[in-house]
Amino acid sequence: VSNQIQSKFRGSLLGSLMGDCLGAPFEGELVSSGDKIIIQRYFDKMEKPEYEGPFKKYTDDTAMMKSVAKFLVTTPEPDLNYLAKLFVNEYYNEPKRGYGQSVATVFEKLKHSKYTDIFRPASEQFDGRGSYGNGGAMRIAPISLYFHNDLENMIKLARDSTRITHGHMLGINGAILQALAIRQAFLLDPTETVKADEFCNTLLKQIHEVEKSYFEDLEDNSEDLPYCAKIKQIKYFLNQEFTDDLQEEIIENLGHGISAYDSVPIAIFCFLKAQNPIPRIETNNVFRRTIQFAITMGGDTDTIACMAGAIVGAHLGEEAINKTLLKHCEKYDDIIALAHKLYENRQLQI
Ligand code: F2R
Ligand code: MG
Ligand code: MG
Ligand code: MG
């Protein structure tokens, strides 16, 4: 059992890295059906042992995920001030990792205010509405793994770690939804295909609890809560026959953008859909299929593939990963070491 848990820690962090590195060259592109062939060849080429290309660089998604993992392994009790410092130091060391356009303001304010109130800079973003970007969700994997057997603390830390940069309810709850999806995948048997309907029903129950607290004073509760509505759409789309037209409709409804609301749900959809073969995604490897499929969604490809990768890696573990493909991703060995430390540190806590 402990071997399987370790493997899932590595699988999830590597899935996050690989989705980011392999998806980044396509970020912001509108992927058309012809591009599916290009993406298919891109993966085929990199799985060939003789292929030697320059490695694929990771972006802000991985830079921030590493900080979240370091935060969990360094301090005995999670210290959010320390996490804020890790984010800021990482950003100032390597600012050109493709960060969100507004989040740099948060880093500047954190630094100049000497971390007196770590949630304040984020709460001031966008005229006090806060960011609803997917920056909280893209880096959340270490929290799901670390707290896989402590749901309450997982949700609390997913929320608070996100609030350092994201003040908007949709940015925060999107990160919690992604954390819940990784955790559920982690808890499932890797030798069994995931039952999509059950997976969605569990998520729906859990995220409903989270979302309803934001809407308690709403008189009219006839409308579905935002992420609950998205999960119902995921269920609907999973049961349709998959065609290029349907994929367009999925992108239109679930989104493929830079906001959490327009990216976390489609990442979860990709994970569930890739449990079974998908037309024109030619591979028998479910891990690769998930990431490759996520990239064909276009838009915020690095982040959607990173999030889908973190989920599938938590389910299948590192054995599912093609090592030749992995070796094209920048500093993959650092991520393996970090996953190992995260696992060991967790063993000391429980
Ligand atoms: N920054 C990017 N991609 C930019 C495109 C790069 C590409 N390579 C290219 O050449 O075109 N990717 C990275 O950013 C995302 C994570 O962003 P995060 O951390 O959430 O940052 P931020 O700045 O807080 O939010 C992102 C943008 O979302 C819009 N937005 C957010 N809240 C808003 C609000 N309340 N009102 C209006 N707009 C809001 C803004 O445009 C923000 O700049 C990941 O994709 C990562 O890969
Ligand atoms: Mg990025
Ligand atoms: Mg921001
Ligand atoms: Mg992105």
What does this structure look like?
The protein has a single domain, classed as ADP-ribosylation/Crystallin J1 (ADP-ribosylglycohydrolase fold, Orthogonal Bundle). It is built from 18 helices and no strands. About 60% of the residues lie in helices and about 0% in strands. It has about 350 residues and is an all-alpha fold. Helix 1 (about 1-25) runs parallel beside helix 15 (about 285-295), helix 12 (about 225-240) packs antiparallel against helix 13 and helix 14 crosses helix 15 (about 285-295). The radius of gyration is 19 Å and the shape is globular. The structure holds ADP-ribosyl-L-arginine and magnesium ion (3 copies). One magnesium ion binds near residues 131 and 165.
Show the helix and strand layout.
Layout lengths: L1 H22 L11 H12 L13 H15 L5 H14 L9 H10 L7 H4 L1 H4 L12 H6 L4 H13 L5 H19 L8 H17 L13 H13 L5 H11 L9 H10 L12 H10 L5 H16 L6 H4 L5 H18 L1
Helix pairs in contact: 1-15, 1-16, 1-18, 3-4, 3-18, 4-5, 9-10, 10-11, 10-16, 11-12, 12-13, 12-14, 14-15, 14-16, 15-16
The structure holds ADP-ribosyl-L-arginine and magnesium ion (3 copies).
Q: Main attributes?
A:
18 helices; 350 residues; single chain; binds magnesium ion; mainly alpha; ADP-ribosylglycohydrolase fold; binds ADP-ribosyl-L-arginine
